[in-house]
Design goal:
Elements: H1 3-9, E1 23-29, H2 31-37, E2 40-47, E3 52-59, H3 62-71, H4 76-90, E4 93-97, H5 100-112, H6 135-143, H7 148-160
Antiparallel strand pairs: 1-2, 2-3, 3-4
The structure holds zinc ion.
Zinc ion binds at residues 53, 97, 99, 101-102, 134, 136-137.
């Protein structure tokens, strides 16, 4: 599932303008997922009016993509500069949120369509209508390109120190 594709599936009109009042903070990366699977796993804190939730976004196989370009003769820096902007639209991502809405309405659909960054959920919701994702994920995915510079420099640091 690509970022733009997922965003288009989330019914954002349902949430109105309330998401404007959210606070968003980048919490960090999972270095073990980067080392083990070559995935860039980022965790964000989303603070709404009543609760805090953690949103995870995983860019799949980013390390392999960078390495493939290096293999073709590109420098690490140029490969990252080329790939990071593409990550936001051309790469498969996985998402997860700790809110009840994602847990009960989205985790089954996300698992079935292989974009669940959390635990696999094989049971379809029986009481509620399933949805592609929650408003917190929509919020993070919309603002994600803002971290572009930071991701570039961090990814370069990680990959040059391996
Ligand atoms: Zn959520």
């Amino acid at each position: 599932m690509k970022r733009a594709q997922l965003l288009s599936k989330i019914d954002r009109k349902r949430y109105g303008k309330r998401t404007k009042s959210y606070l968003l903070k980048f919490q960090g990366y999972s270095l073990s997922d980067l080392e083990k699977n070559g995935n860039l796993r980022m965790v964000f804190l989303v603070r709404g009016q009543t609760n805090d939730y953690l949103v995870t976004v995983v860019f799949l196989k980013i390390v392999g993509e960078v390495e493939a370009l290096i293999h073709k003769g590109m420098s690490l820096k140029s490969a990252i500069n080329l790939l990071v902007p593409r990550m936001f639209n051309g790469f498969d991502i996985q998402v997860h949120c700790t809110c009840p809405d994602f847990t009960y309405r989205s985790s089954y659909m996300a698992s079935k369509n292989k974009y669940n960054a959390g635990e696999f959920e094989g049971r379809a919701p029986r009481v509620v209508v399933p949805s592609a994702s929650c408003k917190h994920v929509a919020f993070v995915l919309t603002l994600l390109p803002r971290w572009s510079l930071r991701i570039k420099s961090d990814l370069e640091k990680f990959m040059s120190s391996r």
